[in-house]
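Database export, one record per block. Field names are fixed; values are copied verbatim from the stored entry.
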Amino acid sequence: MELRSFRELIGHEEIVHHLETAIRGGTVAHAYIIEGESGSGKRTIAALFAAALLCETKGTDPCGKCLSCSKAFSNNHPDIIHVQHEKPGVISVDEIREQVVSTADIKPYESPWKIYIIADADKMNPQAQNALLKTIEEPAPYVIVLLLASSRESLLPTIRSRCMTLSLKPIDPERIREHLEKELHVSAQEAQVIAAFSQGNIGKARALATGSDFAEMVRGAVSILTKIRKMNVRQCIAAISQLTLDKQNIYDYLDIFTMWFRDVLMFKATQDIDSLIFRGRLEAISEEARHCSYEGLEEILAAIDTARTRLRANVNFDITMELLFLTIREK
């Protein structure tokens, strides 16, 4: 979903306020680092900021209707340059020189600003960053560079020290849940799970809500967790085999396992239904809470973390999952 106004953003009010204040007061910096994980909204904020700066209404928010906004939102504005790179894992020095350094001295074609958006700035190699440095150190009065990165720490200190950093924070899961229900018409129960799973990442939440894979994964994970204590060894092996087929999503499964047992622990401690993520499975949560001790639940949560660590260390998948399932069955 393409947004055309800062008002349509979910969250990030402090950053929007900062950018609007800078536009209103004429204190726009020549270089920004916008940092946040994939899906957090970096590209959207950069696009809205660029459109607002070039909007013909001269306001602090793009009008979305003028010719400049139309060009900006169709990625067809001559004064908004989206830096491209051929190799997926790196932005080379030649690409920075050709697309930024060699063109920065050319005045804007039709606007007061010339805006460079480098969407994968953390993929610039050191040579590319050093090539960009002079443009940031001694910018032409009309040049603005927007560096979008997962973390500012991936950029050289010389780059970081010359940029204004805007850090995107996780969005309140409740706001994400409301958005999914209202705008995407997701059921309350599914929206609750997705909002918790996305951990404040609106892009991730929307992707999960508009696909079918996640809902199927949740059903599969919950099915295993509600049956695991009644499984024999052969059935456990079959369940592990089921996960093996979807091994690329195993960390997502482990996150769902964690959410489930945190619900069990929360319900055991408080009996508060409203605090549950899987509140639609109250009967199963309640039964698990009666069966498990506090110590057992803590050990299960620790075992899930251990499984994550082992898998990242390339420990055998089947053995790792078997140990995890045995811990869940025993506790």
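Remark 1: The CA atoms of residues 198 and 205 lie 5 Å apart.
Remark 2: The beta strands are 31-35, 80-82, 114-118, 143-149, 164-167.
End of record.
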